[in-house]
Amino acid sequence: MTTTTPVRTVEHTTPPRTTLLDWLRRPRAALNPPVWLRWTIGLGSAAALLALPLVNPSYINQTVTLVMIWTIVGLGLNLLVGFGGQVSLGHSAFFAMGAYSVVIAGQAGWPHPLTLVVAGAVPFVIGYLIGLPALRLKGLQLGLVTLAMAIATPSAIRALGDLTRGNRGIAIDADPPAWVALEHDQWVFYLALACAGLAYLVTRRLARGRLGRSFVAVRDAELVAETLGVDVWQTKTRLFAASAVYAGVAGGLYALLLEFIGPENFGLAMSISFVTLIVVGGLATVPGAVLGALFVQYVPTWTSALSASATGVTYGVVLMVFAFFVPYGLVGLLRGILAPAVDRLPGRRPGRA
């Protein structure tokens, strides 16, 4: 007959110890704040963003506009990489297509809002055509194809000198129409705010809807998704083209903000910063694009004050740290920190009686 000693009983009932690394790498559900807090944050953020360009100097408006531009790119790239599982290192190419589309259409006399439609349409068509053969590739092969796009973009701009003016660059008058009583920076700010708000809502809708579930199904179990009736190839191609639209519109806003672009604006470093954006912000999360955009806009500004090469080193170190230790990005960290306090707040929550 065997007996169980008290020491053995304690060993069996003691919960496993959680280390800091376990906490950092733990997946977490989205926060579920009460309805009153959602409305407070939403209305407060909207009011602050609408008032911001009217009370701040132009350089602050420009940096916040850049944050919104990077957010649009991050939303589209996160759809492709985070939800769709496709690797893309070449979204700077679509960003450049959108920028040059806006400049060329603007020089032809098209109004700015209409040029942004062109900036989305051109990358969509080209992205779809590229996606048809490229998305039959997988993993590293697709990454190399898109990397080649990013490397070739500045040379392609120079080669199309009759259209893009090559190394000389090309300028655009992005002042608002006469009937709009705003300065240039305020006008572009509101255009970027409208586009970023629309992109955020559309992305959130896609991520939570039937299309988002099909993206995740293709990412996680391609054969199972195909068995269930999902057209895997068409899903991938449309997702790739849709992601290109985000980058193109963001590129168009970038051209309107700077009023001058050249091939040096769209190098490989830009594509690397886009990848950094979604990794740091949080893959497969919609708010992660906003946090990642804040990172790529402000952290290089701080590091460049230390050294000219500090930005590249920072990107490399941060990418390795997040890949190894914080796989769910800043969104995962914030969820872990805020969830205990948010769950204690009183009030009705969506989905609960």
Automatic annotation (TrEMBL):
Q: Which domain of life is it from?
A: Bacteria
**Which residue ranges does UniProt annotate as crossing the membrane?**
35-54, 60-81, 93-110, 116-135, 142-161, 187-203, 239-262, 268-296, 308-330
Question: Which molecular function term from Gene Ontology is one that the record holds?
Answer: branched-chain amino acid transmembrane transporter activity
One matching Pfam family: BPD_transp_2
User: Which keywords does this chain's UniProt record carry?
Assistant: Cell membrane, Membrane, Transmembrane, Transmembrane helix
Its membrane topology is listed as: Multi-pass membrane protein
Compartments where found: Cell membrane
Q: Which InterPro entries match?
A: ABC_transp_permease, LivM-like
One CC-aspect GO term: plasma membrane
Protein's recorded name: Branched-chain amino acid transport system permease protein
The species is Microbacterium thalassium
